[in-house]
Amino acid sequence: MSHVSTPQRSDDSDAPSPSRRRGRGRKxxxxxxRRTGRKILxxxxxxxxxxxxxxxWLYSDLNNNIKGVDIDKAIGDDRPEKLPTSGQNILxxxxxxxAGANAELDAGNVSGARSDTALVVHIPEGRKKAVxxxxxxxxxxxxxxxxxxxxxxxxxxxxxxxxxxxxxxxxACTVKTVEQMSGVRMDHYMEIDFAGFKGLVDxxxxxxxxxxxxxxxxxGGLTLDAGTHKLDGTDSLKFVRTRYGYGDGxxxxxxxxxxxxxxxxxxxxxxxxxxxxxxxxxxIADNLTEALTTDSDLASLTKLTEFGRSLDxxxxxxxxxxxxxxxxxxxxxxxVVAAEPQASTxxxxxxxxxxxxxxxxxxxxxxxxx
Length: 370
Hints:
alpha+beta
């Protein structure tokens, strides 16, 4: 069986050599839908915790933790139309900053912050299920002209890596890019960083994961035997960052670990007796809100709680996780581009709140195998 690895970003210190990038085809398709990463879980976890109720005691502390971004003001009117049947669409970003508290969590010396994971979460009308579309970080896209938070303009550019947009121009430009490439208007924006991820895991008392094969001294320093392990926040970060020392050492292995951890973390959150333990509920909410940035419409505990309660009917087991269909770029095979017509079909289904055809979930970047 042939194999193909995921293209690696040039600024990733864990990136394997180009000679290792070919030939993991069957794994690629299986893992393609997995590139939900840990950040969608954290984003939805915020809503679960908010819906669980903190009793509004110490409300002001939690409320002041949340940082807001005025996406509407930054983008202006240059946005897709909001269709009556389009449901709710949320862009969830995982911020991979190695500064401040995050620098203590990882030995990597990377300046600035990057969008480590990007997911468009679509919640159809009726809010009984959800779809999460992952945008591979190495996807080449056209960046629109944007206005940064300091008022400076960033010129439009073609063939830029998707994950570079956040570090150069900020969250509003990332939202604008996603909207223009998809034609789907984002109703909300959520972002959480690595330090908050660690705090969440520690606040809930750790997360239990089961490995089918061992992690053998990865570059992040984590070594685990096959079997069941309970991880604290620090080891959880190493777990979801692991590439070397697990499987074939490619990003696909890390994607699989992230998916495994996502399920375990969500299960742990749902088991927490938040209503029966106000102290624990506050601790969880405090960790999350400190690390959370949202659009200005959600940037208060009241609004976040109301939105979370509106999602009570969603069963995570019904969430469909999809990777944006991509193909290897013909000029630079270490990068990918949106595959057509699959990508357009996928975005249209989300835009019109229709069932996504199976054909629109298949990525050609599988090394020629299905």
